[in-house]
């Protein structure tokens, strides 16, 4: 490559991994382009708080252009990659544009996995985007409004029933937040409803929730949820999801409030690389995060499969993506178009944590296990620290402080995003 021509590094994805890489590449001599389907970076760990009206979308999302800065020289393009041509060093966007690269960082994140039952997605909303969160929020609010208009408790039951499928961190946090809404916060606004009518189910196919946590913390989380009124159904795989109904091997639950948090799959775009993938579609990368046979193409975050020193795959967590992005950004900035012998990526596990509700959480920090109020303080501090921008951190801190002392949640507006199907509506006529 001529010294007068800048190396073109393209980053696909403006999530934790992509943004971390871009920040490290700011001062490099390369020409940098970020491509994402949306114009903003989204702090996904707090999406459930938008869904449950604790936060507004602007509290957890920041425009990508604002993050990288106008003077950085980083170009930001809105688009979705549909296919990659690794041998030609180019890829195709959904509008037909072809983009060429010298080096490519793939950080497209993941989507929820319905395990071959894609038709379930129409009836069970997942939680990956702001739009998803707003749909869930309006579904919850609409359910309360519909129930308020019914005098017969039996007819109200489906609207006051909530099913969260999946006992991972997202499912656990969502179940706890819904329990707080339905049994304490919003219920006070409805004169015809009683908190005792509300039913919240957390459904998990495995023998315990929070499988990636120590068994003792999983059990504490289960007890906290049950104390809040959540019914935790273990060893209960879902057999079918239809409109307003979840079916199991034995029995079913009727409700329009079905939330899917049961697993993730990598972006289908990765299959066009032709590289080896695991069952979830993640690309099996080299220790320097490059794709085998293509040293100029890298995959990071939820899209990458890499094992640690013990032979366990790295978890699909924000800290993994951020560390990989920083590692790769620093590596490529130092190479400056001249690849040499590359170091191996090593993940530093600083711990995992999940919140169950107000002043309730569990945390495993480098072998030290915490639960209850102290774990919740740790969780709150870490999540505020990870937010990008002082404005976002300040607003979230104020919102959480207000909620802690007043028990009142924020935005509770209905804008006709959700319409319940005829099956459940006809029952009240």
Characterise this structure.
The protein has 429 residues and is α/β, with parallel strands linked by helices. The protein contains twelve helices and 25 strands. A six-stranded mixed β-sheet has the order 5-2-1-9-21-20, with helices on one face. The protein has a four-stranded parallel β-sheet with strand order 13-12-11-17. Strands 6-7-8 form a three-stranded antiparallel β-sheet, with no helix packed on it. Helix 1 (16-25) links the parallel strand 1 (8-12) and strand 2. Helix 1 (16-25) packs parallel to helix 9 (318-335). The protein starts with 7 loop residues before the first strand and ends with a helix. 43% of the residues are buried. The model has no long low-confidence stretch (mean pLDDT 88).
List the helices and strands and how they pair.
Elements: E1 8-12, H1 16-25, E2 31-36, E3 40-42, H2 47-51, H3 57-60, E4 61-63, H4 64-68, E5 75-78, E6 81-85, E7 90-93, E8 98-100, E9 103-106, E10 110-112, H5 130-148, H6 153-156, E11 161-165, H7 169-185, E12 199-203, H8 215-227, E13 230-233, E14 238-242, E15 245-248, E16 252-254, E17 257-260, E18 264-266, E19 283-284, E20 290-291, E21 294-299, E22 304-305, H9 318-335, E23 352-357, E24 360-365, E25 368-371, H10 373-386, H11 390-406, H12 422-425
Parallel strand pairs: 1-2, 1-9, 2-5, 9-21, 11-12, 11-17, 12-13, 19-22
Antiparallel strand pairs: 3-4, 6-7, 7-8, 10-18, 14-15, 15-16, 20-21, 23-24, 24-25
């Amino acid at each position: 490559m001529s010294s007068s021509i800048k190396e073109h590094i393209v980053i696909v994805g403006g999530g934790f991994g992509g943004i971390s890489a871009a920040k490290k590449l700011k001062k490099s001599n390369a020409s940098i382009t970020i491509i994402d389907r949306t114009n903003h970076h989204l702090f996904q760990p707090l999406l459930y708080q938008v869904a449950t009206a604790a936060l507004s979308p602007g509290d957890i999302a920041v425009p990508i252009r604002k993050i990288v800065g106008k003077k950085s020289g980083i170009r930001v393009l809105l688009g979705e990659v549909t296919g990659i041509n690794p041998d030609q060093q180019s890829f195709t966007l959904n509008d037909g544009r072809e983009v060429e690269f010298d080096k490519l960082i793939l950080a497209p994140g993941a989507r929820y996995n319905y395990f071959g039952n894609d038709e379930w997605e129409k009836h069970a909303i997942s939680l990956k985007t702001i739009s998803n969160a707003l749909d869930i929020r309006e579904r919850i609010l609409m359910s309360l409004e519909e129930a308020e208009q019914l005098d017969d408790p039996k007819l109200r039951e489906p609207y006051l029933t909530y099913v969260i499928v999946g006992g991972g961190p997202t499912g656990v946090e969502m179940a706890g937040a819904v329990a707080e809404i339905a049994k304490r916060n919003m219920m006070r606004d409805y004169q015809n409803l009683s908190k005792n009518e509300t039913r919240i189910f957390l459904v998990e196919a495995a023998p315990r929730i929070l499988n990636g946590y120590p068994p003792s913390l999983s059990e504490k989380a289960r007890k906290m949820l049950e104390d809040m009124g959540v019914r935790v159904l273990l060893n209960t795989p879902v057999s079918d999801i239809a409109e307003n109904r979840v079916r199991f091997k034995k029995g079913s639950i009727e409700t329009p409030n079905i939330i899917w948090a049961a697993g993730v799959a990598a972006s289908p775009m990765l299959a066009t690389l032709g590289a080896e993938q695991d069952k979830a579609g993640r690309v099996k990368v080299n220790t320097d995060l490059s794709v085998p046979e293509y040293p100029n193409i890298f995959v990071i975050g939820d899209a990458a499969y890499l094992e640690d020193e013990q032979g366990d795959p790295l978890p699909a967590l924000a800290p993994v993506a951020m560390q990989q992005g920083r590692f790769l950004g620093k590596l490529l900035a130092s190479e400056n178009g001249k690849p040499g012998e590359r170091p191996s990526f090593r993940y530093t596990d600083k711990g995992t944590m999940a919140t169950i509700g107000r002043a309730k959480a569990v945390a495993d920090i480098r072998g030290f296990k915490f639960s209850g109020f102290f774990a919740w303080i740790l969780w709150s501090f870490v999540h505020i620290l990870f937010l990008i921008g002082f404005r976002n951190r300040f607003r979230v801190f104020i919102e959480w402080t207000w909620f802690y002392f007043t028990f009142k949640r924020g935005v509770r507006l209905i804008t006709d995003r959700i319409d319940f199907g005829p099956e459940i509506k006809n029952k009240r006529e």
